[in-house]
Design goal:
seven-stranded mixed beta sheet, six-stranded mixed beta sheet
Length: about 575
């Protein structure tokens, strides 16, 4: 009975350490049922590892999945069988695209009965299944059990993942179609954003949109490399080229991210010292690319991961610029906080076994990058809105007289077309040119400070007589202009006379002085939408008003080219 119980226990325990493939098997991780042997010498062969004396395997633990940067060869060993009497066509694949090789050996009765050699040095067409990751497919007969040995690692020291997965082929093909659709949507969104940004850059002649497009391009290439899509769809014949380009892409991505940040945050203006630091970081990463192109591997490998990790400090850079005046950087900071966290976790998971999440942080970082791209687009819109607002303020300031806060001559020239556009068919426009009498004497007697206050008082007095549909502007010096919308010439005369009288009845007063003011006015209708000619005619009328004693309003009659004195109706 005891012997039977022992045999039963051995049977149960043996079945616990065996992978059974059925029609429902999908992306089952093998590490829980596997043993591992780490070959630092990289010299062992399949014939060596079959011998238990030469290769002491140990049970694999979760911490073995991400060895960090390693140049070792790894052997994984596990039993594999089909479900009862049902044969299955299964696929075994790596978890990451940058694994250099994944050779699978199926052993029965101490003999290798099947060998599958997989390397990313080969063309994509040599893969067992048309899939973005290294894979092996095998038709497994019913009632057959093998001991599977997986030989994997990197040709040179680099990061890797030992998370090998196995699936039923039919179920996996359905899964891979859904996966390809999701990833296709990701790259489609990246491409759409990039094209829109490039188009905006071309239309607006704005470098920031071109730089943003470049950043989106390097971001898409980064994830295209990490997903295996660049190899599968763009360069399927250039396995060695793809294999040696990962770190160059990392550098390019970091350089473009920093360049976008420098341009968007305007670090050159806000903090020249910080801008120089960022510029030197870009130079170091560029040197890393050059060193890698010369065939040096180890130093650029570590430096490329530093390049990715350095981007985790961009939210700090954004916040520093925000408090320095880049108030539009709110979305930029949020975008980079999200991306920086996932990038940091991805790098930590890849460089060490500190995080036992496998490649989940890498997947999170990929979709965080898409969210970040949209948020950066919002950040660009926010910046453009703020710049337009600032330009609008500057434009308004440039069209407003600083002393009196009336609009100036430039505004008048721009506004006249709009006024004519909204003029009713039974309305006409007239112009009144107003000049303060004896203003030079006021400056000479009371000083320019009082003279400025008198001009402000006069502007306010004129503004009081301005109707909502009219425009009053400071034309220069002590001259002002009113544009009136009226129905007849008599209305213009009445308004001119009331204005003349109103100014005279409102003297300037302060704690020291009381100064009685008067103005001379030249009135003229605006005909043919010619503001310049109307001002010339009004100036003739104004000159006539001054010549006959000032404190007078005169009107120029274009039909007769004569000047009439406006009689007071008060």
């Amino acid at each position: 009975m005891k012997i039977f119980n022992c045999l039963l226990l051995l049977l149960v325990s043996g079945s616990c350490f065996s992978i059974t493939v059925s029609k429902d098997t999908l992306n089952q991780a093998i590490w829980q049922d596997a043993s591992i042997f780490i070959d630092a010498s990289r010299q062992t062969t399949i014939e060596d590892v079959i011998d238990p004396i030469k290769t002491p395997f140990r049970p694999m633990i979760k911490g073995d999945l991400n060895p960090g940067v390693s140049g070792n060869k790894y052997w994984l060993k596990f039993p594999i069988r089909t479900d009862f009497d049902d044969p299955h066509h299964w696929i075994m694949h790596a978890e990451v695209s940058y694994l250099d090789y994944m050779n699978v050996y199926l052993v029965s009765d101490g003999e290798v009965v099947h060998r599958y050699i997989n390397s990313d040095q080969d063309s994509f067409a040599q893969r067992s299944l048309d899939y973005r990751l290294l894979n092996t497919t095998h038709f497994h007969p019913a009632n057959t059990q093998y001991t599977a040995y997986v030989e994997t690692g990197m040709l040179k020291a680099d990061t890797l993942s030992l998370n090998i997965r196995i699936s039923d082929v039919v179920k996996f093909e359905r899964f891979s179609k859904r996966e390809q659709m999701i990833l296709g949507m990701f790259f489609g969104a990246c491409l759409t954003l990039m094209l829109i940004s490039a188009l905006l850059g071309w239309i607006l002649r704005s470098n920031i949109y071109v730089i943003y497009s470049g950043y989106l391009l390097t971001n898409a290439f980064l994830w295209g490399f990490l997903n295996g899509y660049v190899f599968q769809f763009l360069f399927p014949q250039f396995g060695p080229f793809i294999n040696h380009s990962y770190h160059i892409v990392y550098f390019a991505f970091a350089i473009m991210a920093i360049q976008f940040s420098r341009s968007y945050l305007e670090t050159k203006n806000l903090s020249p010292t910080l801008d120089k630091i960022l510029k030197w970081i870009q130079i170091v990463f560029t040197i890393g690319i050059i060193i890698r192109l010369f065939g040096i591997y180890a130093f650029p490998t570590y430096l490329s991961f530093i390049a990715i990790l350095s981007l985790c400090f961009l939210p700090v850079v954004g916040y520093f610029c925000f408090i320095k005046g880049a108030t539009y950087a709110k979305w930029y900071i949020v975008a980079w906080v999200i991306y920086a966290i996932t990038l940091f976790l991805s790098a930590l998971a890849a460089l060490s076994n500190t995080i036992e999440w496998g490649m989940k942080p890498l997947l999170a970082a990929q979709f965080a990058s898409l969210l970040e791209s949209f948020l950066l687009a919002l950040a660009l819109i926010e910046k453009v809105k703020q710049l337009n607002s600032e330009i609008s303020i500057v434009t308004q300031d440039s069209m407003r007289d600083e002393l009196t806060q009336l609009v100036n001559r430039r505004f008048l020239n721009n506004k006249i077309t709009q006024i004519f556009k909204h003029l009713r068919h039974d309305e006409s426009l007239s112009l009144i040119l107003i000049d303060a009498d004896f203003f030079k004497q006021i400056n000479d007697q009371y000083g320019h400070t009082v003279g400025d206050k008198v001009l402000i008082h006069l502007a306010d007095t004129i503004r009081e007589m301005t109707r909502p549909q009219d425009v009053v502007a400071r034309y220069g010096g002590e001259e002002f202009v009113m544009i009136l919308r009226t129905f007849d010439q008599e209305s213009v005369k009445t308004i001119a006379e009331r204005l003349r009288h109103h100014v005279k009845t409102k003297p300037y007063k302060d704690e020291q002085y009381e100064i009685t003011l008067s103005v001379s006015l030249g009135v003229c209708p605006i005909e043919g939408r010619d503001l310049t000619q109307a001002i010339q005619y009004a100036d003739i009328a104004l000159y006539h008003a001054k010549s006959i004693g000032r404190d007078t309003a005169c009107i120029y009659i274009p039909e007769t080219h004569k000047v009439d004195v406006i009689a007071s109706t008060l």
